[in-house]
Amino acid sequence: MTYEEALAFWYERINYEVRSAGPGDLKLERMRALLRRLGDPHERVRCVHVTGTKGKGSTCAMLASVLRAAGYRVGLFTSPHLEHVEERIQVDSVPISHAELAALMSDIAPAVRAMEAEAGLPSPTFFEICTALGFLHFVRRRCDIAILEVGLGGRFDSTNVCLPLVSIITNIGLDHTAQLGNTPEEIAYQKAGIVKRRVPVVSGVTQEGARDVVRRVAREVGAPLWEVGEGAKGNPTPGPSPVRGGEQSRETARVPLNASEGQTSFSPPRTGAGPGVGLPRLGLLGAHQVANAAVACAALDRLREAGMHVPDSAVARGLASVKWPARVELVSQRPTIILDTAHNVPSAEALVRALRECCPVEGAKRVVFAVSSDKQFAEMLRILAGYFDHFQLTKYGNNPRCVPPEKLAATLAEVAPGKPFTTYATSAEAWSAAHAAAGVSDLVCITGSVFLAGELRPFVS
Description:
By secondary structure, the protein is α/β, with parallel strands linked by helices.
């Protein structure tokens, strides 16, 4: 296959990032059948498996950054992408090349066609093919370890065929309710589906009901559980203490790191504790990233117990150098331009907190906003209206799930009466108007969707 032929074959498949999945659409039989035909590459990759409602991508990026700093060759599988589909599959921060993608798709395509020819076996989806592509790439590039981000939920996500060294569940909130359930407890049960028998699990879940679900599932399968954050109980072995914030500045957060023997690497300094390695910088903005870093470091301790050599100096370097585009990304100043992907209620709340803490401005605050129809966008608009002065409401052009800007305007008028807004037919027009209206002391933030951030990133970066 040529690269163009590989993309055409891939994009012919059902894509639940464009068309919402129904409750029965997500299952693992297709994924296992496809991987069998490819020699089960997932069984030859050591990995860390990460799910959650918010923070899972950032946590993956932190883990990959630290493990690279420790000298390992690290695969990173994330979704969706911002600008180019190759971003989803990386080795040591380098996306899969066009030639590699075409070569691997040439191997995958016959297996997919064989499945399509078999009676009763549905064709693999876009994301399942992506997952297979990732496993094959990590095997052929001889990765020491791969960090795998769940696409949707966990229990029936195609990444859940892996047997990880450690499973991670970041914080839980309401998102993808049509597929995962309408309560935090129901969603937590789907996320906890990645917990494997006797495989250590690190949880950053803080809501009481959802936390209880994770504890129950871990107990049922005999998985040792470490908890990070408010409400954490005692752990089966010395584990992470709750992390409560950290010194935050416009450029970086500083996060407590303590290397004392018998303690987790990531815990508040204690009187009389050993010297440790000081307060490393965190290269991502927002107090919520400190919580994500706590989860990542608790997972790194589990990897150390599994025999991986991850010195404290690598943890410090990796956290300081981590980059994760469009997550409260400060693109420029005067005016302050922020590119963000907040696409659900918890991430909208985290965005507003981060902007208040990290990006104080004297002038007006504008937001360019578009969102998918399966999100709780009324509540998102209400949260954002408590901070922003003017809304530039728009849509992105590459996904039919997008809410029309006129519907956003009507919803904003209901949840925040009198809040100024303007609607635009395209995201480029919305960005152009917001940027033109911004003075040097103003702030412009693009948020609401990964798809919006990816569409506008070429204009702002």
